């Protein structure tokens, strides 16, 4: 779970306690232990992440109307949320964590998730879960405050009408760097292509085929979700040009070395960059001028949910603007709830890393599923790139 003191950055606390980085996309052992502790006290789309998950942090059993099992990313709940929900509803909450959508999907498809009522899939994972018949259709008459969602999330392409999922958090993918180290401010990917020699082994890219290829496709003027083999090959050739600059493909683990100056530029999710910048304010995060992926994480109810009533209560609790605003403020993620946004402190409302201008959002794209033969093409080029 995130630290109980929200003013201590997740990056620093994660490093101090585990030697690892506490991020949206990574399962942290210390966080799992914290989640287990919360449960005992009755108290956040990576397409290429194949890390092995630690053993479950709790042991869900048969359906209990007074217990709600939630399966989520590490940074989307905290002790205060769980305790206040329990105080209001009388329902005990047990939180288990996963490190990637793929970990979550594998567990659910293998039948290991029948204990959970609420899960937090990313946008593209919602589509996959619908194809696998894992998600319940939401009874929207039981939901309160859907009209508070910002317009882009009223009718998302991955789940039209939010029929099976509720947008909960969102963010961008961009570049983190130290302007003093580079001696300049950068606007996007042009800087990397123009400075291949001086950036030798100074760059980290996400360990995520679609995010990396999507960023370069947008740099080339194409859709992040291109299904055109010629465009995908062009993006691959551009990445081959960048290959001398790439020290590693890291979704996590780049933070220490970027902060220390060992790396010059790291491709990052906005939430992870923001957590790092809290401790290293000399760093900067930008959304490339060519555009960014706009990712969304959601709440959904599983078809096998043993406690759907408590699941609806959980979703409604978080949809309540006051609750959503407090959670977003404590955990420093972006909320798609416009009523909650209006309750945030001015410094968070004006944080362009959390809430980029509408023009940036309009220019972005969400990662969508592609046909199997196109996915195989991406994977083939990715294997060639990462093994070279």
Automatic annotation (TrEMBL):
One Pfam family per UniProt: SBP_bac_8
PROSITE patterns named in the record: TAT
Keyword list, A-Z: Periplasm, Signal, Transport
One GO term (biological process): polyamine transport
GO molecular function: polyamine binding
Signal peptide range in chain numbering: none
Any Gene Ontology CC annotation: periplasmic space
Name listed for the protein in its UniProt record: Spermidine/putrescine ABC transporter substrate-binding protein
